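Notes from hallway chat w/ T.B., transcribed later so I don't forget. T.B. wanted the structure written out for a chain they're using in a teaching module, and asked if we could keep both sequence and structure tokens in one place. Agreed to drop them here.
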Amino acid sequence: MPCKSFSKENFKELIKNNISKEIYSTDSEAGAIVLFEKTSIRISSGNTGWTQTENVHRIIRILKADELDQANVTVSVPKLDYKNFVHDVKGITFSLVNGEIEEAAISTREDLLKKKVSDDESEVNFSLPGVKAGCIIEYSYEVVSEVRDWFYTWDMQEDLPKLVSEFEIIFPPEFDFTSIAHVRVALKECRTIRQAEADTRAYGHATDKLIDGAENVNESFWIRRNIPALAHEPFVVNMKNQMEHLDVQCTGYKTERFNNSWAKFNEEQWKKGNMRKEVMAQNKFLDATVDSLVKKCATDNDKARAIFRYVRAGFTGNYKKSLKFKKSLSSVFEDRQGNYAEINMLLAAMLVHAGLPANPVMLGTTEKLSSLPVMPVYDRLNRLVVAVKIDSGTVFLDATDKSNPYGMLDPSCYNGFCWVLGDEGHGATLSPSMIAERLVAVVKINGFTDTTAKMEVVIKNGMITSAELRRMWRMHPEEEDKYFAEFSSSVPGNVTVLKSVADNLNDPDTNLVIRHTCELHFGGGAGGMYVSSQMVKFISENPFKASKRTLPIEFQYRNQYSLFASIELPANLAPDTLPKPVKISYEDGALTYKKAENYIESMNLLSVSASLERAAINFHADEQDGLRTFFGRVIEESNEELILKKK
């Protein structure tokens, strides 16, 4: 049924029982708590097609002043017109004054603020009056819009803890809907919605067949109780994968079934749509360009690289997340621009035109819940890239960003299951373990005087960091100066950075190399000189400071950092006693740190080698203490100083 009437007696009782309550067992430290919320979506037919009416009702107890912003509500709608609008907005603030509950209501029209966000999205904002710590706010609204995508999402777990959260969808019986839940507690299937509401278990579901006026409808209802707030902790690659969440997607109409398997998804997207036609067509307009690009290429890899570089350099994307094709590939080619899906479709078409087996790939980045092999959920897909098979295997490509290197996607694309579209479409997995970052730092110290020495630092960044820095510096040029300033502040206090330059800045297929010219300063006393054993530190602060951890620990990729330092000592200096080689390992090599110093007396050359390798990317929450200890020891060793004494 649609959301219960605003401020019915049962909700008044809920407000009365909670207006003076200060602590909730669901979260004793919460600044606010959702006492009740319900989202109800009804699908119905009209003169202009299918319409969805979304009713939202929410009651929130505000416990602390830092949660007063809960009273500022933003409602998103596709656009604002006669088919898409927000109405029936109601809101009341309940406050306890001298033992009595006082109410302050919003005025429906005056308190609404409408704003156009983009061509496809608008917002309606309203605020509840008289909000202060200790009050309860209750609001509801209705959004009427055209049915566009036929899938719906219930984010049952969000930033606030919740006592009760309900979600329902009401639809004509000729439709079928399939739900996919991402919930950590067992589901209780109930015979009726009334039974599900009365049951006290944490998670319940029921479906009723109803007569609503002159219509027969199906109502599918879910309820979740005592939901903890989502923990926001560092080192979580995909926060969506940690949230309790439900997707509901239309998978049938009358006798037709769709969207319920990847095979049908492949048929709809590749075979029935324009995608196959555009990619596999003869595309005569590509003849001259593709021929000129590949005629001197010796291998398939050379051909793929040449075409990729051409598209990356010559075409501009205008909407990163779009999966919809609004232009033909010939128009994209002529205009030299398109949305991001269209540009990568053009890349696939050019690779196919060159005789290479290339296919579009649909995936969801880490801002989306990971897709499942069992069936596609459209809301989890937001990116189209390209896979091409060459002698060395399958290479994944994304030509939509000028900083993307050949053969590697942005780390956010490695989010699990994805789908390779084609005549023989198939699933694939893009795992964070497939990519690794390798940084190498080389330090040379020479030219000693009584008080100074010259130091050259060369840092060869890995391809992931290289792409990130190029992208950031291109979009925000001031960040390059900030990056160099941060390096200057990170070196030991007796080091002055004289000059910093970046090599290979405009070649995204090479490592970005940073060169620093520095000068070391010494006290000049008779006791000797002190030199940091690790002038370039892999980490300067322990990343695991918190004493409590709730979520699993995730890293976005594997990495290996290496440092090689050589110190050409003058004839009158020699190192004091050298420390023994160090090896610190966690969990059989999941994390490894090594450092060793060596002195060649005949050459008066002191060398230091250090490395930090992270071979694993996933750790349990209860491993935080062990990780903190590991990184603490790494920092301690990297801060060690070498003593150079006069002979």
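Follow-up for T.B.: The first strand starts at residue 32 and ends at 46. Might be a good example for the class.
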